[in-house]
Amino acid sequence: MRTLKLTLAYDGTEFNGWQVQPNRRTVQQTLQDALQRITGQATTAVASGRTDAGVHALGQVVGFRTASTLACDVLLRALNGNLPEDVVALDLQEAAGDFHAIRDALRKTYRYIILDGQMPDVFGRAYCWRVPQRLDVLAMQQAASLLLGTHDFSSFESAGSERATSVRTLFGSLVKRKEGRGGGGYLSGDRVVYEVTADGFLYNMVRAIVGTLHDVGRGANSPLEIETILNARDRKLASMTAPAHGLFLVSVEYVVPPCASFT
What we know:
- The chain has 263 residues and is of the alpha+beta class.
- It is built from five helices and ten strands.
- 21% of the residues lie in helices and 28% in strands.
- Strand 2 (46-47) and strand 3 form a beta hairpin.
- The longest helix has 13 residues, at 27-39.
């Protein structure tokens, strides 16, 4: 049996999340069905994380084992010939026999998009959270920076997924504005982008952080209040969970990147 490492992109709009569920369309079931058609074997595909219904992925990593002798490039082309249009296999590589997409992941990066321009975007509405008020990005970034480092993120964890610990380390937490050009089209208006990198994430953690940053951006909370919320370890103190459709899993790292050189 071979162990393979697959990188997928998918539009989560029409999926009920990653994990197989009875009588529901999921990314995992769609992928496993495609693999079975190609290889003639039932396969269990393990993703780096279970994205929720409506969440998108630019670089989801999946591990699976197969007895197929097809070369990786051949199997990759076959996958894209058998997957629906809202799922694309980007890369397929041989992996060590003990590779595990969850346990071996060192860092993950998520991106969340908020559209706060004057005009809604009819084409991008499934890929961003539309809010009516222009947000204060500088205040949001000040708050986001207070989340960097190792903390107990219980205040940003939804119930429903038990974890051994709620402690996580954030390596990056950045809010920035992307200026729109107008004229319609996909995400053409002004938008606020939050990008976060960590050694792991709790259930709905990114969306809870975004909801809280949104309240800072609209002036309902000061940036420094996010530190109080974090230290309280109480989900009731954080803001709403932002909608799923603005969230993208960007990448998963399995080797720690080299430190940047300042010389």
